[in-house]
Amino acid sequence: MHCFASLVSSTPTNLSHKPLLEAGQKTNYSSDRPSRTSFISSLFRGDDKTMCNRSFLEKTIPAAKWVRGYNKKDIIHDVIAGLTVGLTAIPQGIAYAVVAGLQPQYGLYAAFMGPFTYVLLGSCKDITIGPTAILALMTKTFVTSHGPDFAVLLAFLSGSIIFLLGLFRMGFLVDFISMPVTVGFTSAAAITIASSQFKGLFGFGGSSNDFIGACVNLVKHLHETRLWDTVLGMSTIVVLLLTKFSLVLSSTAVDGEIEVRISVG
């Protein structure tokens, strides 16, 4: 959902200096980016003066603007960030390919092709582009029924639709998705992803593509549980939870110290 919103959204790249919007306040991007009406009319009318204008191109292709103003001093930090993300994306892409029922190389393709495209057309810098668990699970249904070729076709058609939505400035459609729908989707995705890991967590066989099927498969094959697989999986979960809570406690302590200093000073 967040990737979809960022890819099709008409949010400009220079909003970092603007104050946060209050609840219920509408966002107007007409002054920063070309409006849907003017863009579509120029596109079909073939208005060369408008479409070849540097300002128009910079607003349509954000990379045309930030490349000219790039600071060479930031290249070291960007290289370090790129290596960090790349080293994380490699095992993550392989794992999601396995979840989708595909060979590992498909996950690597999905991991690096998306960022190469988004670096030119993307309008939001605070987003992670690449394969996700919920998309891998949804792709698995097509792979199981039709084979790996349909996964490639599905990715192409989905990307084409999202590209057209962004081209015609249809990001406003996200405003019609209410918060309960978003929360429901996120919760359902979390439950589906967690249930799909029962087989790997307990080390038994069987297959399932939905929550109910995963629970039934868990009951049927519970006697086949492998002890060391379960110990390793549970230990990993405990370490992740402890790390998360330690970060929350440390940030809370820092905030409390700052508040005390301000009140005393």
From TrEMBL:
Residues 76-245 form the SLC26A/SulP transporter domain. Pfam families: Sulfate_transp. One of its GO terms (cellular component) is membrane. The lineage of its organism: Eukaryota, Metazoa, Ecdysozoa, Arthropoda, Hexapoda. It is found in: Membrane. The chain crosses the membrane at residues 75-98, 118-138, 150-170, 227-247. It comes from the Eukaryota. GO terms for biological process: transmembrane transport. This is (California timema) hypothetical protein. InterPro entries: SLC26A/SulP_dom, SLC26A/SulP_fam. It is a multi-pass membrane protein. Keywords: Membrane, Transmembrane, Transmembrane helix.
